[in-house]
Amino acid sequence: MKHIIIFLGLLTICHTGFGQATVYPARAQNKAIAILGATIHTGTGQVIENGYITFDQGKITGIGDARVVKFNTNTYEMINAGGKHIYPGFISPVTDLGLIETSSIRATLDNSEVGNLNPHIRSIIAYNTDSKIPNTLRTNGILLAHITPQGGLISGQSSVVELDGWNWEDAAYKTDLGIHMNWPSSQISSRPNALPVEMQKENSQKAFSELERYFAEARAYSELSKPDVSNSRFNAMKGLFNNSKKLFVNAQNSKDIIAAVNFFKKMGINPVIAGAREAHLISSFLKDNNISLIINEPHALPSNENDDVYLPYKQAKMLSDAGINFAISIDGYWQQRNLPFMAGTAAAYGLSKEQALASITLNTAKILGIDKTVGSLEIGKDATLFISAGDALDMMSNDVEQAFIRGKNISLDNLHKQLFKRYSEKYEGK
């Protein structure tokens, strides 16, 4: 009995320690909601001053000028958002959010698998809804994320999740929508610890040959109506050849991007290029081949020593002027909460605010194939949106007061806020 009491006591201590950061998933919407008086940024480029938006059972039912409508307060839960802003939920693409909790603790790493060719690996089943990190993203308006595996030549399959839910099944928004791979780089490293040049070239050619053989075998397998032996890896790749899945290719320099696009065009696959540091150098080629991009964070140094120091800030404007569809992303998981400010920087260096907004909402939704239901504020789409007291793309004024995922009023509490409150009160009055 004594041992049981000690054990229960330890459980209580653990619960108290970890309970501080507990944020419970929201309940489904049970009453129609009308938000009035805000400036509504639809994500399509349209801005509605003094607007209204209504939603019921998780879907947007109305949007327009608040001055020309009246609402029955018995039917709607009324929210006065005068002087504030409403945005579609931001979407974070190509991230291992929820697959890593603490990068220095190996037991919390589940973002890559052993081996070089893993198209059958599903990132969604490793997504951790108990992670403390997604809650810090919701506070800045990021309500969906594209969970992506890493490592090897072919990393595995990605899925889109809502940043709310008890488990990965609850969070899943669109599962196994694409396969991710890393294009063998032709760039020669000159770092002091780099391999000899000839060995680097040999390794790159070896990786390309392996990729060429693998895709040829996968395509041949996809053409079999009933294979004699089932192959889980090739089964996962079938969607690439019938266009039910997207291929995301991580490639940085212009030579590699061109090589990747030409390689997959021969196979009837139109890839999405992720990374794309030198995409602006080949904008005509990308436009001609209808290639979409997921570009890396603008808050970065130029990749080449002779580049304009502001080039990463300007790249989004250059791609927009060339008519290329792109989304803005950030590598990794820990600073994903800064995604809206990356878009804000792109706005400061040439994009309009609404174009910058689209780069983390509607453009991203189009690239991921979820734009019919999310990414903009339109009647019939999911009520995934938030209210901010200020400009959500400006780190000085972003202040998310309420957020909804498919109409669910989600909590905006997180560990950062709790620690701030805790230590603010500790030193208050001293």
Task: Give a structural overview.
It is a single chain. The chain has 12 helices and 16 strands. Residues 4-19 have low confidence and may be disordered. It has 430 residues and is α/β, with parallel strands linked by helices. The strands form 2 sheets. Strands 1, 2, 3, 4, 5, 14, 15 and 16 form an 8-stranded mixed sheet that branches. An 8-stranded mixed sheet has the order 6-7-8-9-10-11-12-13, with helices on both faces. The protein folds into 2 domains: 26-89 and 375-430, Urease, subunit C, domain 1 (Roll); 90-184 and 213-374, TIM Barrel (Alpha-Beta Barrel), CATH 3.20.20.
State the separation between the terminal residues, measured CA to CA.
Answer: 46 Å
- What Rg is obtained from the alpha carbons, in whole angstroms? 23 Å
Question: How many separate domains?
Answer: 2
Number of helices: 12
For the largest beta-sheet, the strand count, sense and barrel status come to: 8 strands, mixed
CATH class of the largest domain: Alpha Beta
Q: How would you classify the helix and strand content by structural class?
A: alpha/beta
Stretches with pLDDT under 50, minimum 5 residues: 4-19
CATH topology of the largest domain: TIM Barrel
- Helix content percent band: 25-40%
- The averaged pLDDT comes out at 91
Secondary structure tally: strands: 16
* Beta-strand percentage range: 15-25%
Order of helices and strands: HEEEEEEHEEHEHHEHEHEHEHHHEEEH
Q: What is the CATH architecture assignment of the largest domain?
A: Alpha-Beta Barrel
The CATH superfamily of the largest domain is Metal-dependent hydrolases
Shape: globular
